[in-house]
Amino acid sequence: MNPNLRGKVAVVTGASRGLGKAMAVALASEGARVALVSRSAEDLARVAAEITDAGGEAAPFPADVSSEVQVRRIAADIIARFGSVMILINNAGLAMRRPVTELTPDEWRAVLETNLTSAFLMSRSFVPFMKGNGYGRILNIASVMASVSLPGRTAYSASKSALLGFTRSLAQELAPDRITVNTISPGLFATELARPITEDPGLLAQFLANIPLNRPGNPEEIGQLAVYLCSEAAGYITGTDILIDGGWTAR
Description:
Elements: E1 9-13, H1 18-29, E2 33-38, H2 41-53, E3 57-62, H3 68-82, E4 87-90, H4 105-130, E5 136-141, H5 154-174, E6 179-186, H6 195-198, H7 201-208, H8 219-230, E7 241-244
Parallel strand pairs: 1-2, 1-4, 2-3, 4-5, 5-6, 6-7
Helix pairs in contact: 1-8, 3-4, 4-5
């Protein structure tokens, strides 16, 4: 068990499935106490039970993190439950594939509010509790689509690219408090969200043609990366983007 994470309180959004769940489980396995956040109370309860059954500590906090009112509510509830927060992982995301001429303003706003505004709202609410400890970690989950893109991803790529800029500025703002801020940019991972790709042999082959390692990532791999970036060992890494994409952007 990583002694640097034992007892530290981590908040993970989008924690009910996929990469968010993988990161929450990985942090809990290293001794972090985890506040699980997503819209689905039922799914969160299952993840919390999985963590506690394995000997960890986790509690569910259902909320829409694009809502200022709901973020303020869960911030109060999380602090009341755990007493502090040292780690924040902004993972909640919405992917929408539309040609720009078919994308409605409401859809555009929904993608940006979920992928970008939520990170601002969560950071604004939890940073005050992270200051003064000499340690803090914020991970914003971006995407390979912030560096490269595909047709129909205008809203998604725009939101994830903006998240990189948000991270760079916030890293400088919080450096005096020894709070590091980084992004992780995943490529194709074998998650529920990617099933339309991974379960379609033709579509999967198209994606793998762009990936030198010739496979999707395993969620556990991003979990271990999150553990490292949240540890004391990563204290000199801030304001940067860590690509975990099987070599996609190296092409």
